[in-house]
Amino acid sequence: MSADEPEQKKTGRPAESEVPVPDDEALAEARKKVEEIDARYEPGARETVVLPGSDGTVSGTAFDDYVDDDGNLKEPEPEKGS
Fold first, then answer.
1. pLDDT tens across the length of the chain (82 residues)
2. DSSP string, 4-69
3. What is the pTM of this model?
4. Which of 17, 49, 55, 68 is most deeply buried (CB count within 10 A of its CB)?
5. Alpha carbons 26 and 13: distance in angstroms, whole number
6. What are the beta bridge partners of residue 67?
7. What letter does residue 50 receive in the DSSP assignment?
C-alpha cells in the first residue's frame, strides 16, 4: 500500500459496491408477508375489548382472542401436538 492510497478497514461486511440484490421470488414472498401484517393492523380489523377484572384499566385489541362476546375469559386452547 502506498502513501497515496486510503487505508481500508476490514469490517467483515461487503464493500458498498457489493450490495446483495434479492431475487423476484424473495421480493414476492416479502410483499405477501407485508400484506398479511398490514391486514392485521388495519383500523377496525380487531375489536377492542376490556380485560375482565381490570375495571377498564387493561384494554386493547391484543385481548380479543382471550375474551368472549360477553366479556368473560375464554378457556385456553390446548397446545397443538399435545
1. 555 555 556 666 656 677 888 899 999 999 999 999 888 777 777 777 777 777 777 777 666 677 777 777 777 777 666 5
2. TSPPPP--SSPPGGG-----HHHHHHHHHHHHHHHHHTSTTSS--EE-TTSTTSSEEGGGTTTB-T
3. 0.38
4. 49
5. 21
6. 73
7. E
